[in-house]
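Ticket reopened. Same input as before:
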Amino acid sequence: MEINYDNVKVIGFDADDTLWINETYFREAEKDFSKLLSRYETVNKIDQELYKKEIKNLEIYGYGVKGFVLSMIEMAVEISNHNVSNKTIEAILNIGKDMINKPVILLKGVENVLNILSKEYRLILVTKGDLLDQERKLNKSGLIDYFHHIEVVSDKKEENYLKLLTHLDIIPSEFLMVGNSLKSDVLPLINIGAHSMHVPFHTTWIHEDVSDIEQTTNNYLTVKNLSDILKVLN
Amino acid sequence: MEINYDNVKVIGFDADDTLWINETYFREAEKDFSKLLSRYETVNKIDQELYKKEIKNLEIYGYGVKGFVLSMIEMAVEISNHNVSNKTIEAILNIGKDMINKPVILLKGVENVLNILSKEYRLILVTKGDLLDQERKLNKSGLIDYFHHIEVVSDKKEENYLKLLTHLDIIPSEFLMVGNSLKSDVLPLINIGAHSMHVPFHTTWIHEDVSDIEQTTNNYLTVKNLSDILKVLN
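Engineering reply: fixed in the latest deploy. New output:
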């Protein structure tokens, strides 16, 4: 069964790792962090413990760089048995500031896709990151004019998307979400009867061999590059 | 000249210190912080330096508890000449977590006002805080059903409000903003031709002697309690 996009009025784009590189910066930060603490533990152990700490703090801090930095500091104090130096604390704070000031590197074909789609659809940015961070990135990206506005959601679960649709005053079949995360940008949408397209971030693709456009189920398409969306929508 | 609110369709409410207590928790946190560092400096000096640090970091961290905690940690390292203990760093992290978990204490008359106004107007929450924090507070407050949605803005300047109006698809005269901050909730609105009502937080009122409703200029009203809005709008 082919998917019918005729009703779509609003297209929501995930930002990080869908329009621009982000995950890469977190991986680099984690590497720098484990180097700073290498006298206390192995890189592997530090990675694992930081991940656990982030998950544990997610409920209280939410997503974004600031919560990530607070988790790194908490972890540094713990893993060093309260012996981490002030210089290291300072270095961790600077990892965070550097992350916030990173350049925005667009993924392949992004500008062209937005330029074409913005003529026919209302485009919005849907992100669970920090609003200030995302506005700053959008400003740096040069893509700001293609978007009607930014929607910040505290999480990307079914209830958050249902609230978003109410807010946009549209019904599920009028909304298409595009993003790299199956869990956040695809499955909740399918569950509420909206559309979704999955554009995995490139690191994922190294381990997978799929054709350019693949309909994994009856409900959503997986495309290799953002540009493939044009073949489907136009 | 009396102000005419006949066109108003959407009322935006500031959250912190307009609907519930917030500033008080920041003042308490600052007091706890200066106690933790009292071996290094006077309370007065610590207060001043923390304020400077917050302002300096505002551009990078934005508003909210997480940026405040990161500024406290940076300050602690600096003011102690890199001698602050890991226990103190931990205590600062806990000040932040405690702040995030504080109970939500509604200001006088809030529920009644929202209940009445929500029958005639679309109410939204307009905040420059952290979305996750504000959603959590709104959930705790029991007020969630009165609001159509939360608008998070990275700042409350004219350009942010203009974007918000575009997003809401309304013209300035159809919007009324209610809040405790002249700088954030009143003046930018007046400058773009929208409506605003000023409800100063109680601590401000100790030093001022005004009647219940006062028209400071031709453009906006200052009211003593949120309930006074009903006298004007109904």
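Residues 153 and 206 of chain B are 30 Å apart (CA to CA). The interface with chain A takes residues 60-62, 66-67, 69-70, 73-74, 77, 80, 82-87, 89-90, 93, 96-97, 100-101, 130-132, 135, 148-149, 152-154, 163, 166-167 of chain B (CB under 8 Å). Please confirm and we'll close it.
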